[in-house]
Specification:
Elements (H helix, E strand, L loop, with lengths): L2 E5 L12 H7 L3 E5 L16 H11 L4 E6 L3 H10 L6 E5 L11 H6 L10 E3 L5 E4 L1 H8 L5 H10 L3 E2 L11 H4 L3 E6 L7 H7 L8 E4 L5 H4 L1 H14 L1
Parallel strand pairs: 1-2, 1-3, 3-4, 4-8, 8-9
Antiparallel strand pairs: 5-6, 6-7
Length: 238
Amino acid sequence: MADFLLIHGSCHGAWCWRDVIPALAALGHDARAIDLPGNGADTTPHDRVTLADSAAAVLAASTPETVVVGHSWGGFPISAAAEADPEGMRALIYLCAYIPVQSGLSMVDVRKRAPRHPILPAVRRSADGLSMTVDPALATGIFYNDCAPDVADRAVAQLCAQALPPQTTPLTVTERFASVPKSYIVCRDDHCIPPEYQDEMTADWPRDRVHEMATGHSPFLSDPQGLAALLSRIAEAG
């Protein structure tokens, strides 16, 4: 059985994996989630949140046997962690996540390459430019379009401000990052990261490493059982 570490995306926290952790446990796996610096219950000031510290938080919670799952923006901290210590985890799984498609790009650089940007109308930047939030009136349609109304409402109420400095920091990746086994899960009804862009980011990946779900951007809430089952299959396949 596998050991999973679950890493959230922008404006989220460990709370979003609440239903996936017991679903993985029911399949015989160990699973845990953490708050990245500045998110969830972590109170690091936004001007002190860095990509390096986010990667360090991932590594601190990981072991050489851990399968690290990164959702959305979480794809960059897990990539930075793999570059810093490729032996610190067993494998990476990107869940409708941004990946460093080219060394030296930031997450924002990668996002800008997408053919369209559904989240931009909902983004509200702070006056100091150090963080952003998502307009609650638009968050459900972007993040939780296929979730039950009560689930979506509960999630929207827990969204937090997202530090921007780590998302604008370029990430250099080398053979260290390349040496870590990777898989990707495309979400076909994603209203945040266009599914066609997820296809583009993984166009040169081995086909047996790219999987899909017929969900929106947050399958951990809309289909936690299905997500747990797919994570289990990916981990068991090596």
